[in-house]
Amino acid sequence: MGDLVPARSLNDLAYCSRRYWLERVEGQWADSADTEQGRNVHRRVDAPSKDGLPAPSDLSVHRVVRSLDLGDPELGLVARIDLVEVTAGEIAPIEYKKGTAPDAPDGAWEPERVQVAAQVLLLRKHGYDVPRGYLYFAESQRRVPVEVTPELERRTLELVEEASRLAVADVAPPPLLRSPKCAKCSLIELCLPDETRMLRGELDEVRPFVPARDDRIPLHVVTHGTSLGIDHEEVVVRERGKEIGRVRLIETSQVVVRGNASVSTPLLTALAEHQIPLAVHSWGGWYVGSFLPAGGFAAGLRVAQHRWAADAEASLGVARVLVHGKIRNQRTLLRRNGKDVPRAALQSMADAAAEALRAPNAPSLLGLEGSAARTYFENFPRMLRKDLPFDMDGRNRRPPKDPINALLSFGYACLARELTHALAQVGLEPHVGFYHRMRPGRPALALDLMEEFRPLAVDSAVLTAVNTGTLTPDDFQMRTTGVILRDRGKKVFLYTLERRFDELATHPVFGTTLSLRRIFVLQARLLARFLTGEVPSYLPYRTR
Questions:
Q1: For the chain, how many structural domains are there in total?
Q2: pTM of the full structure
């Protein structure tokens, strides 16, 4: 019954059509403390009863049926009813809610009343005489009757028609305008109502509803020969059969393994169920790939992304602003941290950033980026402490020939992983980009989006790790073919990098304070809004 409208979705639609769109059409979801509490309340009625409903003509016996699935193509509805109670010849659906009974004119607000009305209509369609349903509010332990009047029935059917229309619409409904409903919505970070309205010129400020940081943290496993498994909702890490650590799934944002490590299938299943990605890096630090939870949502967004990628002129427009943002951020970092940086170098980078916005084609844009990058990395040593035994001669890689370049390559690989996960979380395809050439195994869009973040996220972390003496020459191994980080150096730099990703920053457009890792996801969502036409332009993240 996949084409039928769930009664639960009518609740969302009556509350906010955009919330319905995000959940039902794009398949996106986000938990909050309220949704977790609601899930706990429902556990007592989630287990289906062994016995089904009695026949409509035999309602004399008392019976309680839990978690009953009903659907009807003619109504266009489907529902999983928490509880159906048969007593004294009357049958009624009961919908469980976690909170207290509201002080509403009809005992409950319209979204909840519509949801119960849909359940009543389904029972009627199956031959039962059902005058009313009930809402049970767990916190106040109170039942509220919902009388399904002709007016409520008409409103419910109107919402079914609207839901069916939105399901095939090409454009998402606009977000609510400064509505108090937004503060209580678990999808606020996915919806971005104020941010979207501001970029459309409809608001002057953004309410700070999005949490500054994620409560969860990444798990990095960098020890050779480890095995990862699952035990009672905890990730268990073992070395040669001996347990060396465990972390709770609920506290984990991602799992990152390096080198020779094994991961059990039960753990992969648990990670997928909790929407936790697992990333794999080679022992040298290269980002190999990720195991991502099953997607399939945001099909319309993927279609829009592919259309943009197939249009050379449209792709060039996106690439211009990405390169512009990268050069501006490189120049800002160099200007703030460099000693005796030549004015000519800063001016040439400013000119390159401005010219990037007018680049006539992709080759010329690539040339501007390359020229600015050479100027930037030629002056990178001016940001290093002179009394430390570290230096570099421009940017080099594959393999890096000095410790600074080894750190940059390692950090960029980590950043590529972070942006791959951010794009997948939003619903974009990480491998279909607009600037970097698309080829098998290359997350082109992640590389596109990370351009603006390279100097702010990785280069600044390298400067911190080196200039504070956190890393020493002993943390690197010099080989004839290049330089690699030793085990201690990897752990120390990962800690520095994670601290940088978790640092709070003020978004230059919205004025809200977020961690850099949350800004990764925010920028990915703004790119998605631009590709689908919700906002007129994509603004790269630029440090002030």
A1: 3
A2: 0.89
